[in-house]
Amino acid sequence: MNELKPGSSEAKFADIIWDNEPLTSSELSQKSEELLGWQKTTSFTVLKRLCNKGIFQNKRGTVTSIISRDEYISAQSEQFVEQTFNGSLPAFFAAFTSKKKLSAKEIEELRRMIDEYEEGDT
Q: Maximum Cα–Cα distance for the chain, whole Å?
């Protein structure tokens, strides 16, 4: 799966779809014009690109997602850790926390997530 860069035009366009689906391609074009200032042709070009990436589909003029935003973010995160840290979550975490101090709330949330993960393995 190819990448949508956060803050990119494609990512903003994808958010419009995820936030409003299902929607007709005409509705998508209108929303893209309102929110992004895009012409109809730009919307259809980007939609086709995202459909080719397997993220969305446009069937009979109705646009829906093939994968959810959460599924997409999860896949992108896994890909990032795999490519950047050879798949090592501890290496990712060490790099992340080397410049950023975690709050007590963040640490507690991480502990809770690990505990829930361990409970699921038993």
A: 54
- Identify the CATH assignment for 9-69 out of 3.30.460.10, 1.10.10.10, 3.40.50.1950, 3.30.70.3090: 1.10.10.10
Residue-wise over 92-122: b if at least 16 C-beta within 10 A, else e? Answer: beeeeeeeeeeeeeeeeeeeeeeeeeeeeee
Locate the domains of the chain by residue range.
9-69
The whole-model pTM stands at 0.74
Render pLDDT for 33-42 as a digit per residue (tens, 0 to 9): 999 999 999 9
Q: In this predicted model, what pLDDT tens digit does every residue of 47-62 receive, in sequence order?
A: 999 999 999 999 999 9
